[in-house]
Amino acid sequence: MPASPPASVLRKLRTIRGVVLDADGILTDGTVLYGSGGDMKAFHIRDGHGLVLMRRLGLFLGVISGRSSEGLDRRLDELGIPDRFLGVREKIPCLRELVSRWGVPTESLLFMGDDVVDLSVMRLSGVAVTVPEAPFALRREAHWVTQSAGGRGAVREVSDWICFCLTGDGSFAFSGIGREDR
Fold this sequence. Notes:
globular
């Protein structure tokens, strides 16, 4: 496992009930390739498996992104993440919708974003996470800056720590264990 997040974050990770992510710069490295078939994005396979692990533990998962793309929709479908707001300008109303839909307080959410449009949502979340290449304003406000880059394992880094804090099991051999079983 990478270096530990701050102790204050580790304590908060034990109370997380939902994880909300920005897409570009978090699930991807922020690169957009344009071609004749539209834009293309690359996703890290271990980030996806980290989302699957968190879902197995009964965590709510959502994505709020300022951009939408066919590739992102397809990836979220593959991962079984129906709660998504893509191509939105204002992220706070989307977060409020997720909180209402899931029945969890914002203090029980972890939000992961990488640019200034994410600051308002980060400030409302119980745990605010960003990536090393994020602008200074985000790194200054975040509770935790991952060691891994966006689109290069940052989501998996976060999911590994959440899973460990919720189960105490570093082997991640907790298939079949739901949140209610802990």
